[in-house]
Input
Amino acid sequence: MCSRYTVRDTQAVQREYGAVIKPSYNVAPSQDVVVVTDKAETMKWHYSPTWAKEPMNLINARSETLREKPSFKMAERCLIVADGWYEWLREGESKEPYFFHMSNKVFNFAGIYTEYQGVKGCAIITKEANEKLSKIHHRMPVMLKHNEGRDWLKGKDVYSSSLSERVEYYPVDKIVNSPRNNDERCVEEIKLV
Output
């Protein structure tokens, strides 16, 4: 499950997508995020199907059930712009945060969106983690290269990319646990004792 991520390289985001944003070291659910549909725009990071009586506020959708679940039948596709994400390793009662990135470069998560009560909201598509990343968490976001992103937007199911093999990770401080903390300290590597 991907429940926090980063978009730090604002110049790359502006250059590639034309979106002017502030850097974020701790993007949390319900915040405005940069997505690409036929253009770059912002949406809330929470997804609710149009038919829901109450907001469902989903932040992830499993690739394995995307075409089966009624919640996603009306979804449209998007790309969610990022340059890293966090996962937590559970060891007994303790949960240690780790930061995942691809040489700090901007990339896209596969995403879906819909409009619920006049507000567009999105969710990140996840899949079973590859062997390297599964040491920390059993799921990971679907990452897409530029051409794979175009295919995703056109309706092609693209769930595996060589990008996921280039992901690196390291432990970070638990300050990332609070979305109020949103600065460079969130991504600084720490030594585990």
